[in-house]
Amino acid sequence: MALNLKTKTAHFDHPLYLESGRILESFDLKYETYGVLNKEKSNVIVVCHALTGNHHAAGFYEAEAKPGWWDGMIGEGKAIDTDKFFVICVNIIGSCFGTTGPMSPRGKDKEPYRLKFPVITVTDMVRAQRVLFNSLGINSAYAVIGGSLGAMQALCFAIEHPNFSKRIIALAGTYATQPWAIAFNKIAMEAIINDPRFKGGLYDKDAFNEEGLSSLALGRMVGHISFLSPDSMAKKFGRHYVETDGLYELFGRFQVERYLEYNSHNFSKRFDPLSYLYIIKAMNIFDVTRNFESLQDSLSNIVAKLTLISFKGDLLFLPKEMEEIKKTMYDLGRSSLVEYIEIDSKYGHDAFLVELDKFDMYVKRALE
User: Fold this and answer.
1) Per the residue annotation, which of 148, 215, 275, 345 is the catalytic one?
2) At what angle do helices 255-270 and 214-227 cross, to 10 degrees?
3) Which residue, 253, 282, 311, sits at the end of a domain?
């Protein structure tokens, strides 16, 4: 069977009540589906994307050079098999790829929200997805899967919507964002808000399409460093120098420098800086214990089968953070509900996007 890729936008005229007490009076959600929904609607798998990802998780768009960000995992005969499952990936609230975010039109004058957009949380992202699923007649899922920010969403589904899914698979995640990760995000935030071209959020919507925003590129460079590891950088770049640059030129570059420049500047042309600020804020304040007395209290709500996959080389969300969830589930007497796997990887945080062959069998097994 073909992938059956479909991209849609759903508009909701009723309000979305946010965790902060603020309200989005109306909102759009862009999403993508793969496979075929069965009559019972019992074969739904929700895939949650990470910070800079979007709804386009698999397959190719016309004239597209690269497929969706998890194409190696989703499709016919793959770990998330579209011959069996109906897969849905929703662009999160706050993003800049078709879902309502800070540069979306607001009210009668249709001016962008900009900094008047409310601070959002992972709880809000998941709540908005539930609104979409309900509108599609999907009241439950076979599984919810996500990595990094996607893992945060998956855990939120497990804790705050315990009867929605039978299985939760969280990769390269954490139960609460720790100071190390918040510190990386702070550098990006400071760079962006102090950039004269940012104009306090009053920049033109298309201002950075051609040249990008250098401060966002700088923040992305910092992000790239946190997503990789010393071992993966050494393997990927070594101490190789750019062939066309002179060793004794002050601004001559090593290959790793050119890589950071190229990727970050391209990124800053396609990702909205306000969206970046709002999403890293949501990640920073993520803490599954925030509305509970303790981690035990929070995790005691979980009734789904929980598969936790961490990566040894992950410097952003350390394996011990995922292992703490497993230990707490054991302390609750719920060892039968949790499986913890630490993947032997030196790649870094982004291993969940790259080293699929090291963990896809665990995802497949969890889905069986």
Assistant:
1) 148
2) 120
3) 282
Q: In what order do the strands lie in the sheet with 338-343?
A: 6-12, 27-34, 86-90, 44-48, 141-147, 165-171, 305-311, 338-343
Domain assignment present for 1: no
Number of domains in the chain: 2
- Cα-flanking dihedrals φ and ψ of residue 182, to 5°? -60, -35
Q: Which CATH number covers residue 314?
A: 3.40.50.1820
User: Annotated catalytic, 314?
Assistant: yes
Q: Which residues contact 67 (CB under 8 A, 6 or more apart)?
A: 58, 59, 60
Q: Are residues 157 and 263 in the same domain?
A: no
Owning domain of residue 223: 181-282
Amino acid identity, residue 319? Answer: P
* Alpha carbon 175 to chain centroid, angstroms: 15
Q: Is residue 148 annotated as part of the catalytic site, yes or no? A: yes
Residues 162 and 185 in one domain: no
pLDDT 10s digits, 343-360: 999 999 999 999 999 999
Which of 275, 314, 345, 350 is catalytic? The answer is 314
Q: Is 224 a catalytic residue?
A: no
Whether the per-residue pLDDT at 314 is higher than 70: the answer is: yes
